[in-house]
Amino acid sequence: MIRLLLVLLLLSGPASAEKIVAGLSQTRVSITADFDGSEILIYGAVKRESPAPDGRLDVIITVEGPQTPLIIRKKAQRAGIWINRAQVLIDAAPSFYAVATTGPLSEILSDTDDLRHNITLPRVIRAIGISAEAENAPDFVEALLRIRQNEDRYRVMEGMVQLTEATLFRSDVVLPANLTEGSYKVRLFLVRAGRVVATQERVIGVRKEGLERLIFTSAHDQPLAYAIVSLVLAVAAGWGASAAFRLIRL
Amino acid sequence: MQLYLPIAEVSVDAFLLLGLGGIVGFLSGMFGVGGGFLITPLLFFIGIPPAVAVATGANQVVASSVSGVLAQLKRKAVDFRMGLVLLAGGMAGSASGIWVFALLTRAGQVDLFVQISYVLFLGIIGAMMLQESLRSLLRSRNSHAPVRRSHVHSWVHGLPLKMKFRASGLYISVIPPLLVGAVVGFLAAIMGVGGGFIMVPAMIYLLGMPTKVVIGTSLFQIIFVTAFTTVMHAVTSQTVDMLLAVLLILGGVIGAQIGARVGVRLRAEQLRILLSLLVLAVAGKIALDLLLRPDELFSIMPGVLP
Fold it and tell me: Which of A144, A208, A155 is nearest to A179 (CA)?
């Protein structure tokens, strides 16, 4: 037994002097008719084989929703009216992105490690291929960040991870009501003196359930039948209201 | 009460949707317009994605039109024969409209084209109706003024293929209603609406139909046009949100019943003045959106470039 542990320790190598052990309060989010957002507790601990090395210890947690292609358009004035002129295609941008940290990102994370792991919001978007069809594509990416931050889809929560005794950490991430279905990737980074020393990944499955699931799948699998059911519902409701009003003679 | 909409993928207050449906249904029952030109911008406004708003709006209009037609039917205010002739023209127009719409989508500026057509048609029709109904209101107040005959004989009455439309009290050629149906169907497909706001004045001013059968007949043919639109959207882009539609419909059918009853109590001129003001208000709002500098110059759309 001791031998086995020793072998494991040797295999894991010297880079894993500190490791992250993490858990989520839930790994599945069901979108039902009354879904109004969901709060996920992300918690964990730093596991050490040897005494903690020197340098500031920080934890960064990111939650990233499924990626979708987007078109960003910019309006310009032509002959007195505002119309869409330039546009930029973004191959894939996360539908949701939250980054929670123990301190200000600019202080706790070095640029090289941000570049390597794509942690901060501008990095996440820039990491994606942008087919530049407008002259100043960076303006469009900035606009995307601004609009999505206003919509609460993109969030920077600096100082929202609580780290206790450089060992235990926890953070709450609120998933908004306008969630897209798919796998939400949770990444945890242990940062010592600006450098990422350990990472960990978890996945939260977001799925429509019950009536939502039924409507969504039938709309996509049986579009014609779905359309006819929608029409029958509409006609029946129209007739029903008319009949009801005739009965009560308003 | 917040409700998550499965196709639109947003969470919206259920009572807000019931209320929106109710208001649009009320206007629809009162004026004989489907309400598509109101429901679609209103849904944009509360954050429903445009594609879902257009498709689901069409579904809602089916319900409120059925409810409205049944209320009119009791008063024998539906001219089925005229409705079918208009519909025949409408289907042909609608098919060609969908084709032109696809061409414009490929060319890019479809949003702009739709907005400009809204401003143009709503503006012109609203202004014409307002002027005409104000004039007739003044005339009815001033009994000394010469009364215009309800049926003015013009070149329209010299065309062949005459048909008797008993409910409308007309004996005219089928060519003008077919053409009116086709033009309205074409515009309706491009603008993504049922076309009642174009159809109603066209029936009154071009075909000379009596106002009391216009509303029922217009609603009758709108049912089929919007049903067709709903099926097209559901099959091609899966953008009809049934849950959203059911809530809008619940509010809408009740609103339409009340609207039809209020409409009976108002005089025809007053009804037309109100409708024209409403049409002008929507046109003005869209025109302002085009003319004023928007707060956010950028907009995000899902999907890939065509």
Answer: A208
Contact B2 A227 (CB under 8 A): no
What pLDDT digit, counting tens, does each position of A124-138 carry? 876 555 555 556 777
Tell me whether residues A70 and B245 touch, CB distance under 8 A: no
**A28 touches A186 (CB < 8 A):** no
pLDDT digits (tens, 9 = 90+) for A156-208: 988 888 888 888 999 999 888 878 888 999 999 999 888 899 899 999 998 88
- Please report which residue ranges of chain B form alpha helices under DSSP H: 14-31, 36-45, 50-73, 80-107, 110-141, 175-191, 196-201, 211-237, 242-265, 268-291
Rounded alpha-carbon distances, angstroms, from residue A211 to A32, A208, A215, B8: 7, 8, 6, 14
B79 pLDDT higher than 80: yes
**Cα A175 versus chain centre, distance:** 8
With beta carbons under 8 A apart, name residues in chain A contacting B109. Answer: 83-84
Nearest CA in chain B to A238: B67
- Find the CB nearest A208 among B6, B299, B303: B6
pTM: 0.74
The complex's ipTM?
Answer: 0.75
Q: Check if A249 contacts B (Cβ < 8 Å).
A: no
Partner B contacted by A92 (CB < 8 A): no
CA distances from A125 to A142, A143, B38 (A): 9, 11, 37
Q: What gap in Å lies between CA B70 and CA B102, rounded to an integer?
A: 35
CA distances from B41 to B9, B50, B86, B238 (A): 18, 9, 27, 20
Residue positions counted in chain A: 250
pLDDT value at position A76?
81
pLDDT for B305 equals 44
Determine the Cα angle at B28 with ends B23 and B33, to 5°. Answer: 140
